[in-house]
């Protein structure tokens, strides 16, 4: 059997793992089963590219993801390269075919109502400096959309409380100005007041480890965010999720795409455009919930 020889080739010559070999064989067997149902006279020797195209369409119609179809097509392509080298076939019907495009995964975000509930709850219980620090971290992420590295690297001299602006240093040391609102202003002022009252070190870094007096570590910020987001979501819980949540909320409230791009510090508008798909999915969800005939 050609497939048995193919297995030996993958195992002995290509040194593929047994798991990879199993994946390849499942793909080939599934394809062979489909072709037998499609046309029982199709063989590995007379298979043509039109049949392979119809197979891809059938798989997509059945709900297979582009990733799955591309994986199976890759197995088929490798198999035909093997058959050609062994001169078991005279033509390869697969090598010129392209698999379906893999769409970018939509960014995960926390819904606005859940973020409001979380931040309001934190405000009601923020009595200590530690509480204020943790709330300020989440509120800064959600109110400005800055990155983890940008938050950790923020110094007090970059925070303009009068103009309500952050002077952020982003990727490749590019600087940008990010405005913020009254709620974040109040949070900065309360936090700063408690820092002064508890006689902490002269102001340098905004976000500090209260025990060591040094700039807070990124890993510590990640733990803080994960712990608090776990109260409102079972999905991804990271600072970047708050960045996604910021962008999605801005677009849901009719901010223009170019403005969101500038606030996020994206190089290309194409990077920001993925959030328009997220807002569309939110609209779809609301429609399905609200429309009587949805």
Give the structure's gist in a few sentences.
The protein has 294 residues and is mainly α.
Q: What is the strand arrangement across the widest sheet?
A: 1-2-3
Overall outline:
elongated
Tell me the span between the first and last alpha carbons.
Answer: 52 Å
Find the count of extended strands (DSSP E, 2+ residues).
3
Strand content: under 5%
Indicate the percent of residues in helices: 55-70%
Poorly predicted segments:
none
Name the average pLDDT.
88
Q: Can you write the helix and strand succession as a string?
A: HHHHHHHEEEHHHHH
Q: What structural category do the secondary elements indicate? A: mainly alpha
Oligomer: single chain
Q: If you had to describe this structure to a student in words, what would you say it looks like?
A:
With 294 residues, the protein is mainly α. The chain has twelve helices and three strands, in the order H-H-H-H-H-H-H-E-E-E-H-H-H-H-H. It has a three-stranded antiparallel β-sheet, with no helix packed on it. A hairpin with a 5-residue loop joins strand 2 (165-169) and strand 3. The longest helix is centred in the C-terminal third of the chain and has 22 residues, at 269-290. The radius of gyration is 27 Å and the shape is elongated. The model has no long low-confidence stretch (mean pLDDT 88).
SSE layout and pairing:
Elements: H1 2-13, H2 18-38, H3 49-61, H4 66-85, H5 112-125, H6 129-144, H7 148-152, E1 159-160, E2 165-169, E3 175-179, H8 182-197, H9 218-229, H10 239-252, H11 257-264, H12 269-290
Antiparallel strand pairs: 1-2, 2-3
Helix pairs in contact: 1-2, 2-4, 5-6, 6-8, 6-10, 10-12, 11-12
């Amino acid at each position: 059997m050609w497939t048995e020889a193919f297995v030996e080739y993958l195992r002995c010559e290509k040194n593929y793992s047994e798991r990879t070999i199993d994946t390849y064989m499942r793909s080939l067997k599934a394809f062979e089963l489909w072709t037998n149902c499609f046309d029982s006279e199709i063989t590995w020797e007379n298979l043509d590219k039109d049949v392979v195209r119809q197979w891809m369409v059938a798989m997509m119609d059945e709900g297979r993801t582009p990733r799955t179809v591309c994986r199976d097509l890759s197995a088929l392509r490798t198999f035909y390269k093997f058959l050609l080298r062994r001169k078991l076939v005279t033509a390869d019907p697969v090598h010129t075919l392209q698999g379906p495009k893999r769409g970018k995964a939509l960014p995960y975000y926390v819904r606005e109502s859940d973020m409001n509930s979380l931040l309001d709850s934190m405000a009601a219980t923020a009595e200590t400096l530690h509480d204020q620090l943790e709330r300020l971290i989440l509120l800064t992420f959600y109110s400005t959309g800055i990155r983890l590295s940008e938050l950790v690297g923020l110094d007090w001299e970059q925070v303009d409380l009068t103009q309500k602006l952050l002077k952020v240093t982003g990727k490749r040391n590019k600087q940008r100005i990010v405005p913020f609102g009254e709620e974040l202003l109040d949070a900065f002022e309360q936090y700063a007041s408690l820092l002064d009252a508890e006689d902490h070190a002269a102001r340098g870094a905004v976000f500090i480890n209260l025990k060591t007096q040094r700039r807070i570590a990124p890993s510590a910020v990640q733990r803080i965010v994960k712990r608090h987001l776990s109260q409102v979501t079972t999905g991804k819980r990271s600072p970047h999720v708050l960045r996604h949540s910021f962008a999605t909320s801005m677009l849901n409230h009719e901010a223009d795409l170019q403005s969101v791009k500038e606030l996020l510090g994206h190089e290309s508008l194409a990077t920001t455009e993925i959030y328009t798909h997220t807002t569309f999915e939110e609209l779809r969800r609301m429609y399905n919930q609200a429309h009587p005939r949805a």
